[in-house]
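Narrative summary of target 7.
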Amino acid sequence: MAKRTTPWTDQVMNPCDVQEQLDAYMSMVQIKMNEYWHRCGFTHDDPPVIEVEYGKKYARVIYRDCNGPSRSVHTFINMINGDILKSGSWKAPQPNGVRGNIFEDDNGASRVNEYGAAYLK
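Modeled conformation, tokenized:
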């Protein structure tokens, strides 16, 4: 099996490193969601909870209402290289480009908001 490298470096990716960065990314997204709810003054319920579901190639980052079954896709993360992808549907990312990377210094915080990835400029 060939070793995979990131498109932006020649480093071989370690799955444990990707998982560690994904955990940090999810924490950052949860903080953005909590700050948004506090800033807007929402008091009727707790902020949505950030969760992850794993597929063959992508991790689907979702936000779920605390007291209900409602779920929405926040972003997809490429589990090979850490690319952040905008959601195209519940099952797949948008095919038109990478929005950021979880290995950036800010874990991609500058490329996402509380509800998903930024649009391409």
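The first helix runs from residue 15 to 40.
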